[in-house]
Amino acid sequence: MVDLDDIYSEVILEHNKHPRNRGRVENATHESHCDNPVCGDKIDLSLRVRNGRIEDVRFLGEGCAISQSSASIMTQMIKGKPVAEAEALGEEFRQMLLEGDYEPNAAKLGDLIALQGVKKLHARVKCAVCAWHALRAALTGTATVSTEEE
Amino acid sequence: MNAEKNRHAIERDFRLVADDCPVLQHVVHGKRLVYLDNAAMTQMPRPVMEAMQAFYTHYNANVHRGIHYLSEKATDAYEEARDKVARFLGAPEAESIVFTRNATESLNLVAYSWARENLHAGDEVLLSVMEHHSNLVPWQQMADEVGAKLIYIGLTPEGLLDMEELRQRLTPRVKLVAITEMSNVLGTIVPVAGIIRLAHEVGAIAVIDGAQSAAHLPVSVSELDADFYACSGYKMLGPTGIGALYGRMELLQKMRPFNYGGSMIGHVELARTTWAEVPQKFEGGTPNIGGAIGMAAAADYLTRFGMERVRAHDQKLLAYAFPRLREVPGLTSYGPPPERRGGIIAFTLAGVHPHDIATILDREGVAVRAGHHCAEPLHHYLGISASVRASFYIYNREEDVDQLVQALHKVKEVFGG
User: Fold this and answer.
1) Which of A23, B64, B173, B210 is the most exposed place for a label (fewest CB within 10 A)?
2) Set of chain B residues whose Cβ sits within 8 Å of the Cβ of A14
3) Is some CB atom of chain A closer than 8 A to the CB atom of B414?
4) The pTM is what?
């Protein structure tokens, strides 16, 4: 049984209330939009990448606490990081939520570990990965993506 | 004294319905299950399950062809089911009922077999902004195909269908009116009898989406004078995979079949085929016999109960729920006042997304639906992206509303409101 506190932890509620990096990046080099039609979550992501490093990243969007806090934590963690590192973090995050008995690397995931409880709410996993879909889409030059495409 | 006695008898009957439904006895996340997702699916009482089990246990066989004992028994039961559903819907004859998979398939049948042939470029199709996608997307597709135009009627500030706008826009260009009798989001009851009359005055046919109303209101398609009426078994205590379409006989007779194959043919030659009579013409392939028997048992169950009492029970719960929900700070409910709706309440809570609300309610044992409830255009119309929907049925009681309200306070607590 999942406890409510495992899902709506302090970290998630705090990011939901005060999302970081909201807005649109000036002179963005990469942009994308992700829809989660199941919940109606929307994430608009914009990034400025120079020399393989994410100089700036911001998001706009609306949706549930899980989708919005996931986006907020993501932007906080990948800002200033090399693209390859952000991609590896996304992979670790996906594995944490999608692979049955995966032991997540807590040190690597930082605040993202707060979203681990979502794993047990099958219907809500898509909310948590929406921002990460947007990131992958932006970095691979896809403008629009949906959580239904995986 | 008699009225008092009567009230107690009714109370007892409602309690018995809850006892009849095994699913409702469950405990979820350590809490008593409060099932308030009835607009999506109702729970099945034992007599419905037993009717289906009797078919599978005693006379499981194909219908309309086997010259053997079991097949004849199955055919009789299947046709008896059609007769029961016809009576439940107030249809003039059993043959005017076509068994389908659900209301969606019923509406698609009308779209493909009637609209595709009878709508032409420049014709208009009149709908409301509160239609479920299943009474919207098929008409959108047909309109695209033939070059017809869709006209959407809005709502009054109170959440009722804007009859003034409907009268203005219902011109002789309109060939088809497709409208719900009860909104699956707002619960709004639509005065379809009057709309059907207005439609007929301009020479249009009227298709009624009865997915909700068949379960919540006394319905007589004859009294309504409807041309088509669609409903689903699983929203009225029956099983999934079975629904019905009522059609006016002279229309059904002129229409093309929907599914081609076995069971729906008269004679097949290598180059051409003639069709079976209505309704078999529309029931290609082996039908859902067990499902039809289940749906008929559900119709019987509701008839024994009385649809007037179902309606009265909705009213009682709504009258109790409205003031209780108003106790929750930041709650906004949508749609008309309780007396103008069936047992559905859609709402939002300031600062908390409907999906987060539903997750927390679930942890408190309360099952609701969150999202756009297959009515995305209505949510855009209301200016919201999603809502939470609590929908009642005959086994729900005031204490279920209490548990819902208590759970909503828990949501406020978690989100610090």
Assistant:
1) A23
2) none
3) yes
4) 0.93
